[in-house]
């Protein structure tokens, strides 16, 4: 059976398969369990029923927003370590405890629900068919958006920031999330920014 599920006011939000290396099971075993044992036809695992599904061990976290059996696509949900994959050492616990101490904390989770998690509908211009995609922020996206918002709220307008994302790591969503949330920032009861302008050559952002 499923290891863990997170409900908010009785509504399912996330599921978890939990492993640990003491028992010689890793996050990859959790991923395979989702692909092999969790039927997408089961109500809890149907598209749009939960916002995200987490595969977790004591070293790494991976996430999937759309379970499709063997075709399920899991992305890393790690902090990164020394400009690479994985998570940094944690003197106070296991490497992945940021998931529940930080990301799933009450204020963080309500922020994700309000400003990040969503189902996007894309229409194929040639065929007219519509495709639904569930969006959930990856850890590095949450981190960069929140760092910019926090600094802008503290320092005010006029600061410069450089954000670096690797190829295919969600630059477009990070830009959109920053832009949409900057406009609502306030300091001493006044809005910090009157207008947000995005200069881009990315057609996906134009859309």
Overall description:
Helix 4 (139-155) runs parallel beside helix 5 (171-182). The radius of gyration is 19 Å and the shape is globular. With 207 residues, it is an alpha+beta fold. The protein is built from six helices and nine strands. It has helices at 27-37, 98-103, 106-115, 139-155, 171-182, 203-206, and strands at 4-8, 11-18, 52-56, 61-64, 75-76, 118-123, 130-135, 186-187, 190-191. Strands 1-2-3-4-5 form a five-stranded mixed sheet, with helices on one face. Strands 6-7 form a two-stranded antiparallel ribbon. A two-stranded antiparallel sheet has the order 8-9.
Key terms for this structure?
single chain; alpha+beta; 207 residues; 29% helix; five-stranded mixed beta sheet; globular; 9 strands
Compact description:
The protein is 29% helix and 19% strand.
N to C succession of SSEs: EEHEEEHHEEHHEEH
- Arithmetic mean pLDDT: 93
Largest sheet: 5 strands, mixed
* Overall shape: globular
Gyration radius from CA atoms, angstroms? 19 Å
Number of strands: 9
Strand order within the widest beta sheet: 1-2-3-4-5
Contiguous uncertain segments of 5+ residues = none
Structure classification: alpha+beta
Strand content: 15-25%
